[in-house]
């Protein structure tokens, strides 16, 4: 529905998503993988360099990130999905820090004023969010 209200011409989509490291398929043990880590998946039309290695087969993406990426592929919209594999259950600063290399990408660079302040701002946002998530403890 969101795309129905947007002009597709000149549109470029970046999708950020997280999932458990246990969902990552590899020959090596997932215990030896540095967690969190990023993998990318992109549409054919996305021509910019990605900020991390591409997602290897037989790994899959599911749910809303997969739907958005599929929509972009069908409608020939340049799009990239950055999937963060993490061993944390809740969104925390360590997981969010894994996305930090994306701040230098062409599409996100204009949104960032000062990368050095990003960690401090993230910690403040997460602390505020934690307060709202702990209603009955």
Automatic annotation (TrEMBL):
This is Proteasome assembly chaperone 1. GO terms for molecular function: proteasome binding. One of its GO terms (cellular component) is endoplasmic reticulum. Belongs to the PSMG1 family. It comes from Mesitornis unicolor. InterPro entries: Proteasome_assmbl_chp_1. GO terms for biological process: proteasome core complex assembly. It holds the Pfam family PAC1. Keywords: Chaperone, Proteasome. It comes from the Eukaryota. The keyword Chaperone applies.
């Amino acid at each position: 529905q969101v795309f129905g209200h947007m002009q597709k011409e000149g549109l470029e989509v970046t999708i950020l998503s997280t999932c458990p490291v246990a969902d990552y398929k590899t020959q090596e043990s997932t215990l030896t993988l540095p967690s969190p880590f990023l993998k990318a998946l992109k549409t054919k039309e996305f021509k910019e360099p990605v900020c991390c290695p591409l997602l290897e087969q037989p790994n899959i993406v599911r749910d809303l990130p997969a739907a958005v990426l599929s929509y972009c592929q069908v409608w020939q919209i340049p799009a990239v999905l950055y999937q963060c594999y993490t061993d944390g259950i809740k969104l925390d600063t360590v997981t969010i820090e894994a996305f930090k290399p994306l701040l230098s990408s062409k599409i996100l660079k204009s949104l960032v004023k000062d990368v050095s302040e990003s960690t401090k701002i993230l910690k403040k946002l997460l602390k505020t969010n934690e307060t709202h998530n702990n209603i009955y403890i």
